Amino acid sequence: MSTYTQKKGFGATLWDYLTTVDHKKIAILYLIAGGIFFVLGGLEAMFIRIQLAVPNNDFVSAGLYNEILTMHGTTMIFLAAMPLVFAFMNAVVPLQIGARDVAFPFLNSLGFWLFFFGGVFLNLSWFLGGAPDAGWTSYASLSLASEGHGIDFYTLGLQISGAGTLIGGINFLVTIINMRTPGMTYMRMPLFTWSSFVVSALILFAFPPLTVGLFLMIFDRLFGANFFDVANGGNTIIWEHLFWIFGHPEVYILILPAFGIFSEIFATFSRKRLFGYSSMVFATVLIGFLGFMVWAHHMFTTGLGPIANAIFAVATMAIAVPTGIKIFNWLFTMWGGSISFTTPMLYAIAFIPSFVAGGVTGIMNAAASADYQFHDSYFVVAHFHYVIVGGVVLGLLAGTHFYWPKMFGTMLNEFLGKITFWLFLIGFHLTFFIQHFLGLMGMPRRIFTFLPGQGLETGNMISTVGAFFMAVAVVILLINVVITQVKNVKVGNDPWGDGRTLEWAIPSPPPFYNFKQLPLVRGLDAYWLEKMEGKKGMTPAEPIGDIHMPNSSFIPFMISFGLFVAAFGAMYRVDYAWGLPVLVIGMLITLLSMATRSVKDDHGFHIHKEDLMNDDDKGGKA
User: Please, what is the average pLDDT of the chain?
Assistant: First the structure.
C-alpha cells in the first residue's frame, strides 16, 4: 500500500486531479472551482453595491453595469451555488450510504469537467468583447436585441455546464438507489442523503426544459431561427415558461441540500436524534414535488389571466407547509438537547430566522394581486437573497466548517470561524433587510443609478456597508483555510465527538476505497447506535476481501475540452473564416474521446485482501 500513500510532486498531484474518478477528489475539485466562482460573483456584487452607494454615481457605465449584474446572478446560481452543493454531495453521500464510490465514477468526473469548462467559457466573455447583459434570466426580448457575443457566451456556456449538472444528478440517483450498504433502508438514510436524492430527481426533470430553451435561443441567435422573434411569428413568453419551469425547481435544488446539511448539524450538536425524521423525509419529497407546480408565480404580470394566476398562487402558498414542518422539527430537535455552540451550529441557528424571513416575503409575492406592486422592485431582490443567502449560502458555509475535517483531515479554526459567522450574518441582514423597504418605496430592479431626493440614499448606503461586511467575512474564511492547511494538524475519524452517521466511522480523510469492509446498518444514526453500545467502529457486513476500484481517466477532461473548443467555433463561424474548422475540430476531439472510451477495455484494478490486512486504513492521504 506504500505506493498509495507516498507524497507526490506538484506535477503528479495536478495530473492526479485532472484524471481522478474518486468522488472525494472530485468533491475537492468542485469545492475549489465553486469557491473561485463564488469569489468572482462576490466581486461582481461589490461593484453593484459600490455603484448604488450614492445617487448619480458613475463608478461604472450603464452598459457595464448590465454586464456585471447579469454575470453576478448567473455566476452565483450556476457556477458557485450548484458546484458547491455538488461538492458536499460528492464528499458525503457515498460515505453516508456506506458505498465505496458513486455508481459511475467516470461520469462523475465528466460532470465536473463539463461544468468547469462551461463556467470558464462563460467568464471568458469579459475578455472577448463583453459579457452577457440581459439579466441572469436572459429574457428573450432583451437577449435577441443584445449586440455582440455576450448572450452567445451565456447560452453555450450554460449548455455545456448544464450537461455536467444533469449527468451528476443521474449519477447520484443511481448511486443512492443501488449502492446502499446492507441494512441501509430508505428510512434509515441520513437527511442529507435524502435531500441529495430528491435534488437529483429535481435535476433530472428541471434541467431538460432549460436545455431546450437554451437550444432554441442558440438557434435564434446563431442560425437565424424565429422561436422567440415576435415579428416573425415567435413568442418571447415561451422563453419565460421554459426558463422558470427550470428556474423555480432550481431554487429547491439549491436549498434542499442546505436543509440536509442543517438537519445533520442540528442532530449532531444537540446530541439528539432529529425530531420527526419520517415527517422530515415526507416534507423533503413534498417540496420537490410541489416545486414543479409553482413556476408561473414569476410571471404574474405577463397576462396569463386570473385563473392561471390563482392556481399558481395557491400552489406557491401550499409549498410553505412542508417547509414549516421542517422549521418546527429543527426547533424541536434543539428543544431539550445538549447544545454545543460550534461554528456550524451558529450558522444553523441563524439560518432559521433568516430563512423564515425569506419564506414570509415569498408568501407575500405569491399573492398575485400584491405581486403587481412588488414585481420588478427591490422587494423581490431582497426576498430572493433572503432565500438564497439566508438559506443556501449559510448552509454552504455551515457545511464547509462541518465537513472540512472529513474532507481534509484538519479542523478550521473555531475562533476565526465565529468571526466569519458574525461578520457575514450582520453584513447579510444589513445589506438585504433594508432592500425590502427600498422596494416598497418604489426602487426598481436592475437600475444602474438613482436620483437624489427620492428617499433612497440612506437605504442604499446601508446596503453597501453591509456588503463590505460580507466581503470581509469571506476574506477571513479564506485566511482561516490557508492557516489550517499550513498548520496541517490532523484529526481523528469523529472530530466533533458526536458524529451520528457512517461518514464519521472511518478515518479523516477517508482511504480511497472508503470502507475496508462494508458496514452493517442496524438503524437510523447507525454510527451513534454502535457508539451507544460501546463499540469502537461499525459492525462489518462482509468479511475482508479484494476490493475492485476504477482506473483514473483523462478522457472526461478531453470530452469537455472538445465541447469548449467547439463552442468558440459555433459562435465565431460567421465572423471569421476559422470558425467552422474550429467547430469541426472541437466536435472531433469530443467524439474521438467518446469513441476511445467505447473501444477501450478498462476493467479497473483490485486492492488485494492481503494489502488491506496490512494497511492501517490510512491509504487515502496521497
Answer: 93
Distance of alpha carbon 447 from alpha carbon 443, whole angstroms: 8
CB atoms within 10 A of CB 227: 20
136 three-state secondary structure? coil
Query: Strand, helix or coil at 453?
Result: coil
Alpha helix stretches (DSSP H) within 7-149: 10-19, 23-51, 62-74, 82-96, 105-123, 140-145
Q: Which residue has the cell 454575470?
A: 71
Sign of the dihedral through C-alpha 527, 531, 535, 536: positive
CA distance 19 to 34: 19
Predicted confidence at residue 129, as pLDDT, reads 86
- Give the Cβ contact number of residue 533 at 10 Å: 9
Question: Residue 413 to residues 70, 477, 504: CA-CA distances in angstroms?
Answer: 35, 9, 20
CB burial class (10 A; 0-12, 13-18, 19+) of residue 58? Answer: exposed
pLDDT value for 609: 87
For 141-165, what is the mean pLDDT?
94
Residue 622 and residue 186: Cα distance in Å, rounded? 33
Q: Please, which pLDDT band fits residue 7 given cuts at 50, 70 and 90? A: low
The angle that helices 555-572 and 191-223 make with each other, rounded to 10 degrees, is: 30
How far, in Å, CA of 244 to CA of 596, rounded? 38
Interatomic CA distance for residues 408 and 509, integer angstroms: 5
Q: Cell numbers of 522, please?
A: 442496524
At residue 616, the pLDDT reads 55
- 293, three cell numbers: 407546480
pLDDT at 612 (0 to 100): 85
Q: Say what the pTM is.
A: 0.95
Q: What is the dihedral of CA 301, 307, 308, 313, to 10 degrees?
A: 80
Residues recorded for the chain: 622
What is the rounded CA–CA span in Å between residue 491 and residue 558?
37
CA 67 to chain CA centroid, nearest Å: 22
CA distance 277 to 539: 24
Exposed/middle/buried for residue 2 (C-beta within 10 Å: 0-12, 13-18, 19+): exposed
Count of Cβ atoms closer than 10 Å to residue 548 Cβ: 12
What's the pLDDT at 136?
A: 94
Q: Which residues contact 458 (CB under 8 A, 6 or more apart)?
A: none
The secondary structure element, H or E, covering residue 541 is: none
CB atoms near residue 10 (< 10 Å): 7
Q: Could you tell me which residues come within 8 angstroms of residue 200 by beta carbon, excluding any fewer than 6 positions away?
A: 168, 169, 170, 171, 172, 173, 176
- In Å, how far are 498, 506, 520 from 181, measured between CA atoms? 22, 14, 7
The residue ranges of DSSP E strands in 234-322, in sequence order, are none
The torsion of the CA quartet 202, 204, 207, 213, rounded to 10 degrees, works out to -120
Please determine, for residue 216, whether its predicted confidence score (pLDDT) is greater than 90: yes
Secondary structure string (H, E, C) spanning 176-244: HHHCCCCCCCHHHCCHHHHHHHHHHHHHHHHHHHHHHHHHHHHHHHHHCCCCCCHHHCCCHHHHHHHHH
Instruction: Map residue 271 onto helix, strand or coil.
Output: coil
Cα gap 208→205, rounded to integer Å: 6
The 10s digit of each residue's pLDDT in 67-110 is: 999 999 999 999 999 999 999 999 999 999 999 999 999 999 99
Closest CA to 26 of 97, 105, 121, 120: 105
